[in-house]
Amino acid sequence: MAILSALAAGLLILGVRGADIFGFTPTAIWIARLATGCAILYAALRFVYFPLRRRISDVQVAQFIEERFPQLEDRLITAVEYGESAPRSGLIGLVTRDALDQSDRIDFSLFEDRRKVLSYCAVTALSTLALVGLVLWGPPALPYGFGRLYLPWEGTAGTAAMRIEVTPGEREINRGSDQQILARLVGFDTREVALYTQAEKSTAWVRLAMEPQSRGSGFLYLLVDVQSSLRYYVEAGGVRSQTYTLRVTDRPGVERIDLTYNFPAYTRMDPQVVENEGDISALKGTRVDLRLRLTRPADSARILLQDGSKISLSKVGETDFTGSIAVKQSGSYVIELATAREGSYPATPEHPIDAIEDSAPRVSITKPMRDLKATNVEEVFTEVRAEDDIGLGKVELCFSVNGGPEQTLALHSGRPSLSRITGTHTFFLEEFGLQPGDFISYYGKAWDNDSLGGPKSSSSDMYFIQVRPFEQRYVQSQQGAVPRGEGAAGEALSRQQKDIIAATFKLIRDGGSMDAREYADGMKSLALVQSRLQAQTQGVVERMRRRDAVGVDDNFARLSEYLTSAAGAMGSAANRLGAQQAKDALPDEQKALQQLMRAESLFREIQISFGAQSGRGSQANAEDLADLFELELNKLKNQYETIQRGEVRMIRISTDMR
Question: Which of 551, 538, 542, 635 is nearest to 595 (CA)?
Fold first, then answer.
């Protein structure tokens, strides 16, 4: 049965393929049916009927059992052979009874080849599933051909039939207008599709090759300047469509459409005239004036919009009409004409209306374009560049000192309205009373001048100005002056916190354009990263306390205080991030950064002071604690670099947002 099912499935598919090659003509269908039926009948006789008809003797059965169960030692064969030719008495009877007794011990599971049975069942099931799958979901010709060959009572008018759908079918058009013919192949595929046309009062059919659609599965041909009625049909792969008629009439039509674009007042753009063009593409809020010229006079004209609304046009001449469309949303429109004789009818194809959104401005920090370290008496020059395709409104520089209230500096008031602005500001750090470890975060923000939909704003990335010690102190060693406490290890905590702040700021800035799920995932990731950094910071504090660092030196007491304060702010920020309160979390994140920077700055001073002097007792113990703290920072640095390489996906998401 397994061989028969596999052969039957293959033969059925081959029959459909053969009939498809000859276009499913009646002759091809009958030959395919006959050949497939004969082949399946032969396979059934060869692999099912004749094997079942073959008689198996008792001796063959006994030999089969003896081969599988040799412990019988030919008792069963002997009993069968002599039991058929001699009466059951004497020695023969004893042999027979002995064979029967031994047969009771046979394990008949030895005669079951389960693997072979399962393989036959699998072949049968796979053959059946393959046939059903090809018929239901295979190439379009298979469902159609299977129905034509093997299910003739089902007919061929269903959705799987091989046919050609033609648009527009029966239609009336104006003399001299163009008409596009669209053909869609259903139930089959081919590369060559032809349009046949027959002019009025002509007996000849003209063949025209159709071109495939650039977007879609159909085929197109444009009939240009149709002057007389004609009949047409489409043919492909031996399949022919219904014959349709294009009737040419002399009723009024639209000869041309001229457009005048009146842009919104805030754009300060002059009106723009586009002649002989019906497609509309304009900024939202634009008023488009239309002027129609007809081929013949009409009683009235109006615009039919895609949403069902209608706009009446005013007659300004014998064949001219005017009207306006307010561009509010994308769609399409059709011009409808009306005469006393013809009534109302669409006189143009469907013209698209493309409503363009006024995009938000683009703003960036062009100087210094990076995070910066400076002393508390330096001057830091910043430059903000903003541009918009229509015109800019306000441009501001926003900054915060140590995570405090946000302050703004106006760089441009919006007048005059310019498309590109470069604003500058110099931070005089001495005015802020900063100390090493403090920082200023800043970014640029700009609005456009959209007075219709409301000004749209955008912001640049956030950057940091970190206050470093006023002078660089060195430790004298045998190799020369070598700075201690500088580098990536000493800043492992603050670098990670900066990434969290930058990612939070970006979520606040771009949250309105993000998918709700994407935004929620970003907040969860940031909350997890902030919680992990809090645990690392708290772990450093706990190890310092176990070593009694607070009692060794006042600097270590201050260091522990900074880290404890940072951990507390991190915990508050993580809770707010988990509750998706990004704006509320940002001040806590910046406070944590301030405390971390102060701790790292103090630690550098501790290293320098220990390098400049040597001692024993408590001094040696303090140096051990400093080495312990540096070891912890090195571990955090390695973890941070691992994160940057992408080994922890959740943290990578937040750092990438920087």
Answer: 538
Q: Which two tokens stand for residue 98?
A: 């002995």
Q: How far apart are the first and last CA of the chain?
A: 66
- The pair of structure tokens assigned to 449 is 């001048």
pLDDT given for residue 316 in this prediction: 93
**pLDDT number for residue 558:** 85
pLDDT at 646 over 80: no
pLDDT at 652: 42
520 and 606, same structural domain? yes
Q: Which string of b and e fits 488-520 if b means at least 16 CB within 10 Å?
A: ebbbbbbbbbbbbbbbbbbbebebeeeeeeebe
When pLDDT is averaged across residues 364-377 and rounded to a whole number, the result is 91
- The answer to the question of residue 31 being in a domain is yes
The closest alpha carbon to 492, from 631, 398, 354, 379, belongs to 631
* 84 and 58 Cβ atoms separated by less than 8 Å: yes
Task: Quote the CA–CA distance of 373 and 378 in Å, as a whole number.
Answer: 10
The strand pair at 463-467 and 300-305 is best described as unpaired
Q: Summarize pLDDT for 595-639 with one digit per residue, the tens.
A: 998 888 888 777 776 655 544 444 444 455 555 555 555 555 555
Give a yes or no: residue 308 inside a domain.
yes
Specify which residues 248 forms β-bridges with. Answer: 173
Question: What's the CA gap between 271 and 259, in Å, rounded?
Answer: 10
Where b means 16+ CB within 10 Å and e means fewer, 351-389 reads bebebeebebbebbbeeeeeebebebebebebbbbbebe
**Beta-bridge partner residues of 335:** 303
Q: Are strands 230-236 and 239-240 parallel, antiparallel or unpaired?
A: antiparallel
Mutual orientation of helices 492-510 and 554-578 as an angle, nearest 10°?
Answer: 30
- Cis before residue 51, ω within 30 degrees of 0? no
If asked whether residues 346 and 263 sit together in one domain, one would say yes
Residue 104 lies in a domain: no
Query: What is the rounded distance in angstroms from the CA atom of residue 364 to the CA atom of residue 423?
Result: 11
**Half-sphere exposure of 161 toward its Cβ, with a 13 Å CA cutoff?**
13
> Which of 572, 591, 590 is closest to 527 using CA atoms?
572
Which contacts of 625-630 are long-range, i.e. CB under 8 A and separated by 24 or more positions?
Answer: 625/544, 625/547, 625/549, 625/552, 625/553, 625/556, 628/543, 628/544, 628/547, 629/540, 629/544, 629/559, 629/603, 630/485, 630/489, 630/490, 630/603
Last residue of a domain, one of 356, 380, 402: 356
How far lies 61's CA from each of 55, 66, 72, 267, in Å?
A: 11, 9, 14, 100
What average pLDDT does this structure show over 422-448? 92
Beta bridge partners, 221, equal 181
**Spatial contact of 589 and 595, defined as CB atoms under 8 Å apart:** no
Residue 203 has a pLDDT of 86
Q: How far apart are CA 387 and CA 506, in angstroms?
A: 20
- Is residue 549 domain-shared with residue 586, that is, in the same domain? yes
Average pLDDT over the chain, rounded to whole? 80
Angle at CA of residue 85, ends 82 and 88, nearest 5°: 65
Tell whether 385 and 435 lie within a shared domain.
yes
Better-scored residue on pLDDT, 287 or 476: 287
Same domain (yes/no): 576, 530? yes
Residue 122 confidence (pLDDT): 80
In 483-541, the DSSP E strands lie at none
Residue 222: which domain range? 163-249
Q: What is the domain count for the chain?
A: 5
219: Cα within 13 Å, side-chain hemisphere: 22
In a domain, 35, yes or no: yes
Q: What is the CATH number of the domain that holds 282?
A: 2.60.40
Give residues with Cβ within 8 angstroms of 559, minimum separation 6.
544, 549, 599, 602, 603, 606, 629
Q: Where a domain ends, among 215, 249, 283? A: 249
